[in-house]
Amino acid sequence: MDRFSIEELNLMCIYDTGTRSGLIAGLEKIDLELAPDDAELSELIQSALKKLTAM
Question: What pTM does this model have?
Fold first, then answer.
């Protein structure tokens, strides 16, 4: 499994709910609410989600 990048770790700290499943749900919700011009942030969220679900 790949390690989390610094950017992914920072993102997870911002949306941390105390549980992995809560964090995944929070990141999924935020990703759905992003504007189309936030593609870079969406890619970061998707990368973090892929690693979190693989754990």
Answer: 0.89
